[in-house]
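Hi Prof. W.,

I finally got the GNAT family N-acetyltransferase prediction working! I wasn't sure whether to trim anything, so I left the full sequence exactly as given:
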Amino acid sequence: MTEIFTPRLLLRRWREEDLTAMAEINADPVVMEWIGDGSVLDLEQTAEAIERWEEEWDEEGFGLFAVELLGSGELAGFTGLSVPEYLPEVLPAVEIGWRFGRPFWGQGYAAEAAHASLEFALQDRGLDRVVSICRAGHDASENVMRKLGMSLEREAVDPRYGFPLLVHAIDLTEYRG
Ligand SMILES: CC(C)(COP(=O)(O)OP(=O)(O)OC[C@H]1O[C@@H](n2cnc3c(N)ncnc32)[C@H](O)[C@@H]1OP(=O)(O)O)[C@@H](O)C(=O)NCCC(=O)NCCS
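And this is what came out:
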């Protein structure tokens, strides 16, 4: 069982009881504004997504962590690793991503969880490079990328929706863990 503790958070594999809280996050149009075409996800789609994320853990040895607040035990969202199949031009690559419920924004939780995930990728899993991709103009995400020490590597266009994308990256050699 892969678990990482940070000062305020527990990053862990998904549990059945996470479904309702994650579905609430995925149903918020403000949370989903910059993701895909901005569509929200319902309970069933969230259940399918969690199943896929767990499969990725089993197949790849990495995946998206459920992020729990230490103390209250609330599910704040996710951070972690995935293969960005939706953008073939960057493959092979492993992407770090994040999605938190609105009550958990603006408190440094995303950056705290992302640092732990990046360390997991580069030091525990032995990856030598991690990318992070967001839509151009998504300042909150770019801010997290910069705090991780990532730099802009290329601009791209989302083949699914035509939105301009920014691809940030960090190499193991640049990482100061
Ligand atoms: C992207 C997202 C995860 C960023 O969350 P966030 O809360 O803004 O990010 P951070 O964890 O970096 O916290 C931001 C601010 O919290 C503040 N903060 C408050 N308490 C803090 C603390 N104890 N430690 C650190 N920062 C703290 C800081 O001011 C920080 O801003 P700064 O870096 O400019 O100083 C969030 O907006 C989100 O989930 N969005 C919807 C999903 C999404 O778009 N995902 C990405 C798709 S590409």
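The chain has a mean pLDDT of 97. Does that look reasonable to you?

Thanks,
D.
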